[in-house]
What we know:
This protein has one domain (2-225, 250-292, 336-367): Rossmann fold (3-Layer(aba) Sandwich). The protein has 13 helices and ten strands. The chain has helices at residues 2-23, 82-90, 135-150, 155-163, 173-180, 188-191, 194-214, 232-235, 247-252, 254-270, 281-290, 339-351, 362-367; strands at residues 36-40, 111-113, 166-170, 219-223, 275-279, 299-303, 306-307, 314-315, 329-331, 357-358. It is globular. The model is unreliable at 1-28 (pLDDT under 50). It binds 2-acetamido-2-deoxy-beta-D-glucopyranose (2 copies). One 2-acetamido-2-deoxy-beta-D-glucopyranose is lined by residues 301-302, 310.
Amino acid sequence: MMADYDRVVGVAVLMLFLQLSISVDLVGASPQVSALFVFGDSIVDTGNNNFLNSIAKANYWPYGCDSPSKFPNGRFCNGQTVVDFLGGMLGIPAPPPFADPATTGARLSGGVSYASAAAGILDDTGRHYGDRFTLSQQVVNFETTLDQLRTMMTPANLTRYLAKSVAIMVFGSNDYINNYLMPSLYPSSFQYSPSDFGNLLLNHYARQIVALQSVGLRKFFLAGVPPLGCIPSQLATGRAPPGRCLDYVNQMLGTFNEGLRSLAGSLNRDHPGSVFVYGNTYGVVGDMLNNPPRFGFRVVNASCCGSGRNQGQITCMPMEAPCSNRNWYLFWDAYHTTEAANYVMAFRAYSGPPSDCFPINIQQMASINL
Ligand SMILES: *[C@@H]1O[C@H](CO)[C@@H](O)[C@H](O)[C@H]1NC(C)=O
Ligand SMILES: *[C@@H]1O[C@H](CO)[C@@H](O)[C@H](O)[C@H]1NC(C)=O
């Protein structure tokens, strides 16, 4: 049953990917949401870090080599991010970065992206990369946007606008790979057991999600953490047996992912009139890792642009030639997925079954009239 579903979706996903890579710019005439507000890390950063004093920037070729302009644009990918694709499905362009001075006035009306490479749920996370908008700073930045929106709409219209908007939140990966799993720079693994650390993240995260709900956002997509023990930078540590991922890394993510899923459930119970969806990123990326051909992938244990062991020891460098068949690769660089994989994640977040999106998917959430 499950296998049949996956096979059908795999084929549909491939066909849609080919179609969408051509047509995603022709955003539909009737958007299903008023705006997208994006909170997160490099997985969904669309250029904020280009305006920050950070070494985590995707401002050089070959980043963006498959984007419409073919130029680097701050996305940590060869082409489109999950949010670009979700925007295409919802009929709204991916929102502009908060840090861009041009993101004011009418340009706020389709939403704003606060996502920042190296950012985590914890303020300390990613510190060694320089400046970044941490989760708590992103919430403050959203309030700045709200102040501007208040000057553009009546209170009743703003309430309606926010109720028809979707907040996409993608956090947690850096709290592991750029904090807990970096004992030489961060003390967290000496202070917390893996499950205590997962619960610490959940407590901080829950508080900020509730803060965003209390200022008017009503629809939330909360993405779980992918199997980080399988990304090229982790494989490159050489600590996994041949042909395997780092199981201990994947196992320590269970507390956070399962906790986030049940947090979505309890938030739905405690906040009637709001919707919280958990996205099973771990399961979706796990499917791609376990069944590469079903998604058109041929390489899932090395990056398309990187060098050293698993092309993951040194991530994609300026002017480095990427692999030529980028749709064959699950991973673009040592840390991030390719556009092809991002499409699969977006498709399943948008229209997947409850095993992908709990309790409903983004399409269903968008259609609810609050
Ligand atoms: C408020 O919404 C109504 C109905 O959608 C619209 O006609 C009106 O122009 C809006 N007013 C402002 C100030 O946004
Ligand atoms: C990646 O997996 C393939 C089999 O799919 C294997 O032949 C290759 O050695 C692996 N590469 C690395 C760097 O482990």
